[in-house]
Amino acid sequence: MKKWAGIVLAFLFSFGISVDVHALGDPLIGKTIKHYDGRTTTTGAPTYITFNPAYRTKDGKQSPQYRFYGGDKKFWEDFHWNEFHWYTIVPPKNPTADQQNMKNMLENNQDELGCNGRYLVSSSDCNLKKGRQDPRTRVYMGDNSGTTLITVGPYKGKHYEWRYLGYTPDGEPVDNPFFPDDYAATDTKWYTRKWVNFEQIASMGYMEKTDYDYKALSKRIQWIKEKLLPANPGLINPKKSLEENAEYYARVFSFRSDPDISTGIVTGWHNTNGSLRYVSFAMKKPIKPNLRLVEYDIYLKTDVDGDGDQDLKLIATAKRDPNDDDDIEETKKVLYNKVSRGQTYVFVAKVKNMKTGANHDTTYRPITLDHMYAFDEDALQFNDYSVVFEGAQGAKPTTPKTAIKYGETVEFRWEYTVPYTPQKKILMGASIPIGFFEKGDNIYRGDDKSEFLFDVEQEDIGLVNRIELVDVATGDVADTVIPNHTYTLRYYVKKYKGNMPVGDAKRPDKNPFASIDATVSDQVTTEKGFKDQRATQTLRKAGDMVRIEIPNAVTPKGPCVFTRVVLNAKHRANGQSTDYSNDGPIEKRICAEINISVKGFQVKPQGIRLPYNQSSSREDLSFSFTVTNYNLEGQAKDIPFVLYKEGSVLYRGSVLVPPNKPTTYHVAVPNVSLSTGDEVFQIEVNYPNPTRKWVEYLRDGSDPYKDNVAKNAITVQKNEKPYAVCKLNHTRNTWKTTYSLYQWDGTRVYYWVPGWWEYDSKFFHDRAYDPPPPRKKAMKA
């Protein structure tokens, strides 16, 4: 049960005291202004209400709600969970996450009620609980069972329960019957409670009477007898008649909603152990018309079996009970949680005019179904749609209708092609138009909508770093080039991501085959371009690869074929390529091996001597070098060369070199400036000036120009200064030198060592040396 903490019975006034809930001096000025938007005040409830700035409380102030919300805030009619009628802060059409935050309701910010109650999400918030209770049995249904989706804050995504969800038409807060009692009732014989007259409660300022409390006593008795007591037998005092029970509760309970419009709610106050507590009871549900979206299926439109025909593959389905109007739960099943850009999907939805007993055919027209889509960040928000089809643009019934008959189910079918806008997420939904609710054809909107959130399939095709040259004459892949042979070029495209087929012969404009743009050159004649070269096979799934050929692409005049290829740009535009890093360009040069090299570089003379007093000179030099011109086509080439001296250009020239034969050449360069030391010379053949005259290529991938350079050097020295002093150790030839000569003589000595047994005897020999004294000779020079 819910408790008003700290209020004891001793503080209550006597029964029978009434409170003027209207403005001072003018009982016709109500707390709210009721807006009917075409409805009559006698046959329909207001469409929405606003709080009246002219209204005054007993102390002469404007209402707390007006001071909190202002006069422009609209509170919209709502049938919560197909039962309870009140006016909510949430707009009826596509509210934002913040607009759905019930913390924005004034009464959900109070801190006087039940702050020590059961199931609170936090002791600091007295008005939000972790789940709901059954409004009639008062049994707690478990955590995350609430009737309200939390859209913001730390509990976002949870289904919790707020203490208040709306107002009566005259602006009084309605106790949420799903909000669990703060204290568990140990005795459900409610007739034993000491109930306090609601007018006495109102006189103390803890509650204000509603417009329904001003109804005639006979009307209130009828509501109690027909709608409250049958739904809550624990209120019936067995010692009293039904009429006596009904009259008693009609006098002590406050009616918080209209029992003729929806499931009524009454609130009673009783004294328990010196504290005043309140209890809200749900009445019997009235008979009202209701439309329900009972089925919502999404199909992928694709060639499932590969026969070229478009088939339907179910990827998601949602269903609600088409027979039990009280069962509002939706069952969802997702068979594949990704959708593809550019892919067409088929939607099938069914709307039923539920058999509630109302026997009501719809009157709103046209008979359509709204469908809406949200992309990326919008898809993660609440009712923030990127594209909406409604009204005349909404889905049409498969069979034209002017009304949905009572008990009838109408099928809607439409198609939607996912655009290339969404990158990661897409929300797909359908909803019964709000016009049916506004016309009174559909009492409850909570079963009107179904939505599915999908990941966007990351589709991507791209080039493979594989280019082949095919000899037309043999049909073989060539790894070298023969001039004047005709070649076909072959390229490859791969599906790197996704399972959306690429290439549909029946719809090439919407689903083109993989395509490339390429240029081809033999680096001798003019370059040729090939646009939109297409594959003929479909890429169906990640890992598939197709071949694209350009027949007879080139007949090279030289030894090389060069090509550059990119993926055609249309694949980016239609979402088939999303990872641009593999779209190219890819380049490849295929050549016969071509190499120009130099070796045997000589400079003559190799050495030069200068007078002792000279450091430089000008000399005529002769250079020789051997050049090899290797190429399969047997072409003689005029090859330029350059001679460098110490890094500076000394001489430029060229030589005509026959093919595939080392040839030696001689060049004389006169009057070359030389200085003492090593003078370094270098030759480079086929040098860059600024580009090289001849393209070279080595099939092993190494630098073909590395052997175009050779070096050599000559040494330049100065002569010694003449008349140099020569120091003599002996000025006459009369000196004497003594030499010593040595001779060694030796003899071999044999000896025998006897063993224990005869065959163990050993015979050894060795040499003994007896050096004689040295003999000296004197020699005279």
UniProtKB/TrEMBL annotation:
Organism: Geobacillus thermocatenulatus
Record-given protein name: Uncharacterized protein
Source lineage: Bacteria, Bacillati, Bacillota, Bacilli, Bacillales
